[in-house]
Amino acid sequence: MASILVTGGSGLIGSYLCNLLKSKGHQVSILSRNKTSEPTIFYWDINKNYIDSEAITSAEYIIHLAGAGIADKRWTKARKKVLIDSRVKSTNLLFNKVKELNPNLKGFISASGIGYYGAITSQNIYSETDKPGNDFLSKICILWEKAILKFNSLNIRTVVIRTGVVFSKEGGALEKISKPIKLGFGAALGNGEQYIPWITTEDLCNIYLEAIDNKYIKGIYNAVSPEHITNKTLTLTIAKKFKKHLWLPNVPSFILKIMLGELAIILLEGSRVSSKKIRSTGFKFKSPTLKDALNNLNH
Length: 299
Description:
Blueprint: E1 3-7, H1 12-23, E2 27-32, E3 41-45, E4 50-51, H2 53-57, E5 61-64, H3 77-101, E6 107-113, E7 125-126, H4 136-148, E8 157-163, E9 165-167, H5 173-182, E10 198-200, H6 201-213, E11 219-223, H7 231-241, H8 253-260, H9 265-268, E12 272-273, H10 276-279, H11 290-296
Parallel strand pairs: 1-2, 1-5, 2-3, 5-6, 6-8, 7-12, 8-11, 9-10
Antiparallel strand pairs: 3-4
């Protein structure tokens, strides 16, 4: 069993992942911005370029999930800087400390996003070898992955998990989408034809677990379910699950743009993203279809 350091370990995905890793017998510690006497919680401050040295020296693997929430606030100039810095500066800090204190780390496994391909609605199916888009989401991921892939220069096995929209039973995107539908006020967004590359928390965390256990997994992998669904299909399927009728017209794009500004693009655009590469490793999804996900998440 391995000693694993997790950043972002108290978040929705991180807390689930930490519990999963512990259930498999791994020793898990996390980095926190809050000082505590808890022996498995180490302090770090990316603005002061500080990490508790023991967090790095004791780790055999690092799983890097930390990053400010993309959809939490409007994308002001200041917020955009926070979104980039929370990912890039934190990764650079980890790299410098690993290089200094633990260059024999067995693996560095980091989140990234399918936003790498750009927020574009198209019939293309994007794979890991495709070029990035040219919008703000792409910019975040390009800079983030550039920092992540520096770990290859230390001959450390490096894995990038480009993550889609995460569906969880504890909250997050699916709860936000389901709530108005349950209340009888659900509607597709924009034209409803935009794709939503999605994955359940369980499947996502199992990919991280596989990345720890399988030494042949290295490089970049899309973490999305095999099924391609549009916003309209998602809305209709959830409504059917809860025996609700969709009677409202689609929410117009301009309304979302007024409410959310540039951030609205993440709701109004979306492409199909391939999971073929991760499945080629032998990984099997517990929820390969939306119907499976809704049943497994008890929504």
